[in-house]
Amino acid sequence: MTATVEERQKLQCKFARVQNVFDDCIADARKHLSAPGIDAYIEGANAINRTGRGEEPVLEFLEEMPQIAAILGEGVIEEVVTFTRTLAKSPNSKAIPNFLQSLGAAARALESRGLFTEYLNLVVQTAVRTSPKVHGIDSMYTSPCLPDFLDSVPHLFSLLSLGGIKKWVDYGALAYPNDPDRQQEYFQMKTADSRAVIQRERHGTLFTDSERKLDLYLRGLWQNDAQFVPYSLAFDEIRKPVPYLNEQGLHLPDVYDDLPNGVRGIDRYRALLAHLSAHRRWTTALIADNLSPFQRMAVEVFEDARVEYLAMREFPGLRSIWCKLHPIPNQNLVMDAGVSYIRHRLAILSRALLDSNHTYDNPLILKYVARFNELMAKGNTRTVDVQLLGVQFIAESKVASDSSGKVYFNNTEVEYRDDNRMMWLFIEEGDEETYEERPRPPVEAEDEFKVPPRMYPEWDYSAGHYRPDWVSLYEHLQPKGNPAHIDRLLAKHSALAKRLKKIIDLLKPQNKVRIRYQEEGAELDLDVAVRSLIDFKSGAQPDVRINMSHRHDGRSVAVSLLLDLSASLGDVPEGCAQSKLELSQEAVSLLAWAVDQMGDPLAIGGFHSDTRHNVRYWHFKGYNEPWGDEVKGRLAGMEANFSTRMGAAVRHAGHYLKHQQADKKLLLVLTDGEPADIDTGDTHLLIEDARIAVRELDREGIYTFCINLDPKADEYVEDIFGKHYAVIDNVERLPERLPQLFMSLVK
After folding, report:
1. How far is residue 300's CA from residue 387's CA, in Å, rounded to a whole number?
2. What is the pTM of this model?
3. Phi-psi region at 627: left, alpha or beta (left = phi > 0; alpha = psi -120 to 50)
4. For residue 137, what pLDDT is reported?
5. Of 19, 561, 599, 696, whose CB count within 10 A is highest?
6. Going along 131-273, which residue ranges are E strands?
């Protein structure tokens, strides 16, 4: 669905490239945003346009924001716009495109509005701490490191938690206060110490690396799923967040370290999820208004023990991991006057309820452990059944010092347990603490078919890593022209078609081939059987392989033809009467006819690009689509425009080809020049990205071959395709050479 007239009137940005992609961006936004959200989305684009930083920030905002808002809620749009406007008024306004480009990776890695705000704060701190200072004044100068840091953010989030990235930034800011060149290399991740700090901070188990395993764990053992909402432990040093469960999902740390007692980080996640899942299955909410805070704490201890008892009855192995993670408080602790030990006392009770091999001998503890075990032995327990135990335990154990403001916390925290907020219902409003929650995504309206942009990475050879989600590729079905035009082209080359037909008849799969000398087969091989009988009658050892079977003599080949449709294809080569576009139409039509005669599945696609934000991929023919007027009409409508960003198109063609069921998968790339685009000054960058894309397909078992029409192709084509290429100097022979090259590759 294209943008409405009203939506186009609201968009005040008149840059041609923004107008070209606005239809696709607004269609993607409708999938993720409500009507007010779309209004905020368009107004946000206008606000960024008014900063006067050109079209690049607007394009970034339009492409990235719908997915970010889907993850973090529509309120994040205003937060991003406000931050961008503030950045535009600072000396670091040139970093706005880098900042907007980093937001998608940050949102996907953090999945929490609170953590996302912490990331924005980290961007501000990085800019301030890496700005040159003259006489102690730093707000007047641009930070040379900020763009490099923002470009590195997607790669950093693939390796570190947000806390780890903060420590990495801290090191870079503190280590090179008087060496800006060295500091810039640090944030570009070119120095050894930069990589060493990353390796040092890449400790434990990152949630982003384990999310799929944990999701399968929940589905497999507990038959449920939930939205994960990670949080960071690095930004709240005073009040450490704890896990909790609410209607938005499971809130859990973004990283867990391995423990000295041998418990791995992934096992700590599993212990936490098992405890939370037990609460989800067996806990029902209680009215909290009539209970004191101490009574609620005691009831929570008994309820934690109850759900763990029920969970261990189904999965006995949980006892071992929970006992390793539960603290073992010292019951003989020397207690200071004026200190509250209520948490210490409840931690002893909790340990005794969990571990039947505990060594505690406190009579009160043993009494309530026995009462708890007696209750559980009856079966069919509920949350309300343990409420009385908690209230009575507090009544019998309470001492005057419990109300002291100095509370003893050492060795009392059970890290794998949540804060039990789902246990309580408050009828009257009170001063209970409130929490910022992850907003729910808007309810999607009835879906309408529209292919959203596919995001592809791009290889940055200077940095030595991928730029994640760097290229936006839009798919389209090629508009049809006149199929009679293709028929005339085929008639023009009728003599060539006859020669090709003879070659095709030799390459066509035959019916059956006999496989002889089989001990077990489909039928008797009479010649061998008679010979074996003669040997038997004459006293010789007969050959028992008297059967034969058959196999189909055929090739299993799937082919994808990728056409470079850049503007240079419309040029007329010197000495030719036709343009390269017309010659390509003839060659592709002959090839499609030839492959159809051979019966191999063939897909034809074309591409051109207008910066990384607008790579267009045109479908001419699908693998299962027959050669007919529909395909001929699309080939007749072929046009040449814009530039050649090859890497993303090669990855996209390979994406479809790798799913074909064939023994041999062949990608033919027909191009007339080196990869290039108007937003890339370094021509070698796109050549290197195309080379990496070809290597990726090679690992997928896809053979890539290039047919190049550029007389100067020898300077770069081997860097991309290795030895798998052919340069056609005489472009007029393309209709003859292309089918012949294909047949030589598949015979």
Report:
1. 9
2. 0.53
3. beta
4. 52
5. 561
6. 205-206, 228-231, 244-246, 249-253, 255-256
Nearest to 141 by CA among 106, 92, 102: 92
Q: Which of 478, 422, 433, 463 is nearest to 692 (CA)?
A: 463
Who contacts 197 (Cβ-Cβ below 8 Å, separation ≥6)?
A: 167, 168, 171, 172
3-class DSSP assignment, residue 444: coil
Q: How far apart are the first and last CA of the chain?
A: 45
Contact at 8 Å (CB) between 107 and 71?
yes
For CA atoms 236, 238, 242, 244, the dihedral sign is negative
Give the SS3 label for residue 105.
helix
- Report the relative pairing of strands 702-708 and 602-609 from DSSP bridges: unpaired
User: Could you tell me which of 615, 747, 593, 623 has the C-alpha nearest to residue 693?
Assistant: 615
Close Cβ partners of 628 (under 8 Å, ≥ 6 residues apart): none
Full DSSP string of 352-380:
HHH-TT-----HHHHHHHHHHHHHHHH--
Tokens of 152: 């590195």
Q: 497 — phi, psi (to 5°)?
A: -65, -35
Q: Are 311 and 248 in contact (CB under 8 A)?
A: no
Q: Amino acid letter at 257?
A: D
Per DSSP, the three-state class of 18 is helix
Burial 658-667 (b: 16+ CB within 10 A, else e): eebebeebbb
Element (DSSP H or E) covering residue 575? none
CA 11, CA 201: separation in Å to the nearest integer?
44
Token output for 380 = 């069919």
Burial 579-599 (b: 16+ CB within 10 A, else e): bbbbbbbbbbbbbbbbbbbbe
For residue 474, which phi and psi values (nearest 5 degrees)?
-110, 130
User: Cα 25 from chain centroid?
Assistant: 20
DSSP H or E run through 572: none
According to DSSP H, which parts of 538-622 are helical?
580-598
- What pLDDT is attached to residue 573? 78
* Amino acid (1-letter code) at residue 310: L
**What does the block give as tokens for 287?**
């009215």
* pLDDT at residue 348 in the model: 94
Identify the pLDDT of residue 271.
92
DSSP bridge partners of 665:
558, 702
Tokens 């006999």: give the residue. Answer: 514
Residue 431 in 3-state DSSP?
coil
What pLDDT score does 120 carry?
92
Residue with tokens 């009040």: 239
Please identify every stretch of the chain with a pLDDT value under 50, giving residue numbers as ranges: 237, 431-450, 504, 507, 510
**228-231, strands of its sheet edge to edge:** 228-231, 249-253, 244-246
Query: φ, ψ for residue 172 (rounded to 5)?
Result: -65, -35
For residue 472, the surrounding DSSP H or E stretch is strand 465-477
Q: Tokens representing 9?
A: 């009137």
Q: Which residue has the tokens 């529209």?
A: 450
- Cα 333 versus chain centre, distance: 50
Query: What sign does the CA torsion over 676, 680, 684, 687 have?
Result: negative
Residue 379 tokens read as 């079966």
SS3 89: coil
Distance CA 480, CA 460 (A): 37
Rounded to a whole number of angstroms, the CA Rg of the chain reads 34
